[in-house]
Write a structure and sequence with these properties.
By secondary structure, the protein is mainly alpha-helical. Helix content is about 75%, strand content about 0%. Helix 10 runs antiparallel to helix 11, helix 12 packs antiparallel against helix 13 and helix 19 packs antiparallel against helix 21.
Length: about 450
């Protein structure tokens, strides 16, 4: 008989290592009190319960009982751990090589939890490289085989996120909500994975232009996360809510929420997310006339160092470069801003049409500030925006382009761009430029 205290300690250590709460581990099968008693050594789990808990923790029942795994299982688990660490550390080539070797040459059938982890990491490598379609195909196959089991949430989060980033907002919402409903039926609502998936679905609603639904989902996620979920899930809820508040023009609330998320992520191990959040906070502060350029630059410099040694995608790096360019515009350095924009490769722009349009609009702003002719740039940026369809983000870019044209003396182009912005917002009348919209004004040159 295994000592209950030793067994409970190994279960607790494995749970903490996975970033899970006792509620996450309990799921719909057991109570939090039952898991708590097991971890304290006051209760010995049945064999069935031990098997279930081991599966959720990604370890074998033998490991929980003895602290030792069979040599072959331990070797394979170390390989998967190395791949996950390589991806988290930004060494995508190493992660791809390790997972490809395991998928092609290792027999993982005795350890289905390891097989799923390998395939998930391999799909996430595609995502990190910017190959969203390959990632989606791999994740769709994985979801079809594991739909409804313990790993469905992790796959659902990644798949919804990739659909969203590929511009397939309807699929992102449908895929995410399907898994959310499945989790709620199993009593898994409010768990860390449930909160993370809710936040991902909210972001898809936001990208599709439904700010109201996105804001409400984010606020619900914050309430649940603060009560039940892990710090990582709380950070995700704060982070996304910050974006929605910024979009609604509530800059003070946006900065406060982003700061909460930043504090939580600084104490975690997700360097990529920390860097992306710093970049987002810098972007938010650019719209705040009270924020100093030095404060914004400090966030960007920290983010740049973190991006260098994290699993940042080329698109993450490009967006960081874009915010750097916008800061230079605010500081009155259009030439430096243009140099920054020149660093965004054509390949990255091909992967993300929205980013291409943002770069084009910002480049047009830089030329206008420098006093250069912008008629051709206005036309090219307008063509790119037209291809993006209609959503809130596109409307913001049309506004920025319209006010640039207006300030540069291209009134007819400005009027047409304002019309496009109003169409994107679903407005019933023309929306004209206003001094009450500082986020869309050209940066000052002095």
């Amino acid at each position: 008989m295994v000592a209950s205290t030793d067994l409970g300690r190994r279960i607790r250590d494995a749970r903490v290592a996975q970033g899970m709460t006792q509620g996450d581990l309990a799921g719909s099968d057991y109570s939090v009190g039952y898991v708590s008693r097991i971890e304290s050594g006051a209760r010995q789990p049945s064999r069935e319960a031990l098997d279930t808990l081991a599966s959720r923790l990604g370890v074998t029942p033998e490991f929980l009982q003895t602290g030792v795994e069979a040599a072959e299982a331990l070797a394979r688990r170390h390989d998967v751990d190395r791949a996950e660490l390589a991806l988290a550390g930004g060494d995508i080539d190493e992660a791809v090589a390790l997972t490809a070797d395991l998928l092609e040459n290792a027999d993982l059938s005795p350890w289905p939890d390891l097989a799923r982890r390998v395939r998930l990491v391999h799909a996430l490598c595609y995502e990190a490289m910017g190959d969203l379609h390959s990632a989606i195909i791999a994740l769709e196959d994985l979801q079809a085989e594991h739909d409804g089991d313990e790993g469905a949430a992790s796959v659902g989060i990644a798949l919804s996120r990739c659909y969203r980033d590929a511009g397939d907002f309807g699929q992102a919402i449908d895929a995410g909500e399907r898994v959310l409903r499945s989790m709620e039926k199993k009593g898994l609502g409010g768990t860390t994975e449930h909160v993370r998936l809710s936040v991902t679905v909210a972001s898809a609603y936001f990208e599709a232009g439904n700010l109201g639904v996105a804001t409400r989902m984010a606020r619900r996620a914050i309430k649940v996360a603060e009560a039940n979920a892990s710090p990582e899930a709380q950070a995700a809820a704060y982070w996304n809510a910050s974006i929605y508040e910024r979009t609604a023009g509530h800059l003070e609330a946006a900065v406060e929420l982003a700061s909460r998320a930043l504090h939580l992520l600084e104490n975690g191990n997700s360097t990529r997310n920390l860097a992306k959040l710093r970049t987002q906070l810098a972007h938010t502060l650019l719209n705040d006339r009270e924020a100093s350029p030095q404060e914004i630059r400090e966030h960007l410099e920290l983010a740049e160092r973190e991006l260098e040694w994290s699993s940042a995608s080329p698109i993450d790096l490009a967006r960081h470069t874009l915010v750097n360019a916008r800061l230079l515009l605010r500081e009155g350095d259009p030439v430096g801003a243009t140099r920054q924009l020149d660093q965004v490769s054509a390949e990255v722009c091909h992967q993300d049409p929205a980013l291409t349009a943002e770069v084009a609009v910002t480049r047009t702003q830089a030329k206008a500030i420098a006093g250069e002719p912008i008629a051709t740039d206005l036309e090219q940026a307008g063509d790119l925006l037209t291809l993006l369809g209609s959503d809130l983000g596109v409307a913001q870019l049309w506004f920025a382009l319209a006010e640039t044209a207006d300030l540069a003396g291209h009134q007819s182009t400005a009027l047409a761009a304002f019309r496009q912005a109003s169409v994107c917002l679903g407005a019933s009348r023309m929306i004209m430029p206003s001094s009450d919209r500082p986020a869309f004004r050209l940066p000052a040159t002095s």
